[in-house]
Amino acid sequence: MSTATAERVPLFSSFALHNYRLFWFGGFVSNIGTWMARIAQDWLVLTVLTHNSALALGLITGLQFLPTAVLAPYAGTLADRFDKRRLLMMTQAAMAVTGAILAVLVVGGWVQLWHVFVLATMQGIVAAFDSPARQSFAPEMVPPNLIGNAVGLNSTSFHSARLIGPAVAGLVIGVWGVGPALVINAVSFVAVLVALAMMRASELRPAPRAPKEGGVRAGLRYVRNRPDIMLVMFMVFMLGTFGMNFQVSNAVMATGVFGVGAEQFGLMSSVSAVGAITAGLLAARRTQIPLRLIVGALGAFTVALVLLSISPNYWFYLLVMAPTGFFSLTVMTAANTSVQLATDPVMRGRVMALYMAIFMGGTPIGAPLVGWIGDVLGPRWTLAVGAIACGLAVAVAVLYLLRRRGWEWPWRRNYDEQAYIALPDELR
């Protein structure tokens, strides 16, 4: 995380590698299905199983992420001890099964709200083990100088699918209903399973296997002794817990404020993805991440949330969703890359598990809370509360950096002048 002029690499450098190319395209197809399923599930809950209940939608979102907060440290230890490719094949197959069960229940006309609650929890448990393995697998497919490129291109894959998936889901739901969209998601997991199976094991760069002793504790101790990583994790916690609840916010704004249909609802995520894709492509060329980039992008994202919360109409909301996607993805890719680059390879699975637990683990608190706020104070407050939380994170980060550089409150400048150590290079 140096402030030195960042070196650049060709945009699609990682595609020259056979394994990464397979992983990217398999993930792209699977991600399209995942985004279709998210739109279909939200529409199912809001329009079929409840009467536009933001709280129910928030609870389902929370259940999907709760296991990450609880299981991620242990899952990260497994990712550091076992073959990541085989672990990913098991988790992706399990996600295909849970997706297929929900599709069958909907197509058969048997689905009830509690089914969605249970399946969301099951998906969350699998995702808790999938995420650290997937996050720490990228450095095993590419050399160290392309880690940032791989992370950026992975984000581009995810958000390119986010551009396509919701739009296709809106059309499929409008013409055939929710069931077919969920069927497509279940089938899409075949692509990533085939990609993992076709990889050349001889071309992977596996990280050293972690010892069996002290797995979780070692990861916690490592992060506790790294203030640079802790600061980044604090910012992504506020972003993930309160700022990135668009699964709730877009749904209640679409139905409760603008009164639009499934096609327009899907378009909200697609427009946001346009900005996110742009951010991902820019991120793919960076090899170093200055901390000021993360703080500045989070500040700009806060401003975008304020504009969304006061949007006078649907079209203004769509217009602001593009920069919102750009700045949110900039924060996520920059934070992810900075933590990956700053972490020792033998610790990467555990650190990335803690990172994902911080980033996604707050959602079980944030999503139901935001949903409840939307029911009580109105849909616009689902965005306003995110702006307040992210603005607070920016303020804390700026004050922390100022104090570490020796700045003090004016009335205390004559005291404790030696109390502050020099800012480490990785925070400059």
What report would you give on this structure?
The protein is mostly helical and 428 residues long. It has a single domain, classed as Up-down Bundle (Growth Hormone, Chain: A). The chain has 15 helices and no strands. It has helices spanning 18-49, 54-81, 84-107, 113-141, 147-175, 178-197, 215-224, 227-243, 246-258, 262-283, 291-309, 314-342, 348-361, 363-377, 381-404.
Observed structural traits:
428 residues, mainly alpha, Growth Hormone, Chain: A, 76% helix, 0% strand
Overall strand count: 0
State the CATH topology.
Answer: Growth Hormone, Chain: A
Give the overall form. Answer: globular
Strand content: under 5%
Kindly provide the name of the CATH class: Mainly Alpha
Overall radius of gyration: 21 Å
The CATH level-2 architecture is identified as Up-down Bundle
Question: Class by helix and strand content?
Answer: mainly alpha
The separation of the N and C termini measures 7 Å
Q: So, the CATH homologous superfamily?
A: MFS general substrate transporter like domains
Number of domains: 1
H/E element order: HHHHHHHHHHHHHHH
Helix content: over 70%
Number of helices: 15
What summary fits the major beta sheet?
none
The whole-number mean of residue pLDDT values reads: 82
Q: Extract low-pLDDT stretches.
A: 1-6, 409-428
